[in-house]
Design brief:
Elements lengths: L2 H22 L9 H16 L9 E4 L21 E6 L2 E2 L2 E2 L2 E6 L4 H22 L6 H15 L2 E2 L5 E4 L35 E10 L4 E11 L1
Antiparallel strand pairs: 1-2, 2-5, 3-4, 6-8, 7-8, 8-9
């Protein structure tokens, strides 16, 4: 494993440790505002790893806010007793980006528990499908994710289905160029290497919702590199 791949793997593992500690300490709980939980994550990242920088906006969404895509900026809500809570952060560890998203449940509602199972199962199903492809456009992958949501009985609401990460700041293309996003208007092959011949590290996002019930679930992590 080369240095970049190793550093990227370490960054993701640290993000997973951050989220696990957040849960172990009972910091995700009813009665807390979304903004307060964001502050908790920031403090914990500094305590555990000395991390103070995050490369994308910090997201905690509870209740009906779990239906919002990344681009949404809903009002700050208080976590309720039976809520689902999405946590999505992009901490930078020693100059390398992580991007992790998880959903937590405050109660034991059967439909919400099913949603938690489905988003993780769907993520691994999508990864296996991705890994079996010899070429794949961002648009093709985006369509696949929407079909996958319907297969599981949900609706996909993400603006994109994923993107790259890397040493901070990660590779950028020109304005309006969606070649590094899993997006319906990206008709480029996302399995290719960067201009220097390096592997790209892709994040895969699963965001399923039930609009009638007002609930959503999100599962996001690095799909790997090709």
């Amino acid at each position: 494993m080369n240095e970049i791949k190793q550093k990227m793997a370490i960054a993701e593992q640290k993000a997973k440790e951050l989220f696990a500690t957040l849960q172990e300490r009972g910091l995700i709980r009813p009665g807390k505002r979304e903004g307060e939980l964001i502050e908790d994550v920031v403090k914990l990242a500094k305590e555990l790893f000395g991390t103070e920088s995050f490369w994308h906006k910090k997201i905690v969404r509870a209740g009906i806010n779990t239906m919002q895509p990344y681009s949404g900026n809903p009002p700050d809500l208080v976590i309720q007793e039976d809520d689902l809570v999405i946590v999505d952060f992009g901490p930078i560890f020693e100059g390398y980006e992580a991007d992790l998203g998880r959903t937590y449940i405050m109660g034991s509602d059967p439909l919400k528990l099913k949603l938690l199972r489905d988003i993780e199962d769907a993520w691994y199903e999508a990864k296996a499908w991705h890994d079996a492809q010899s070429s794949l456009t961002g648009a093709e992958f985006f369509i696949y994710l929407h079909d996958l949501a319907r297969k599981y009985g949900w609706e996909y609401v993400g603006d994109i289905g994923g993107h790259i990460v890397g040493p901070y700041p990660h590779e950028q293309l020109g304005d309006g160029n969606l070649g590094l996003d899993i997006h319906p208007n990206n008709h480029a092959d996302i399995l290719g290497k960067d201009p220097q011949g390096n592997d790209r590290h892709w994040i895969l996002e699963i965001h399923f919702v039930d609009k009638a019930k007002g609930i959503g679930g999100f599962f996001e992590q690095m799909i790997g590199y090709r």
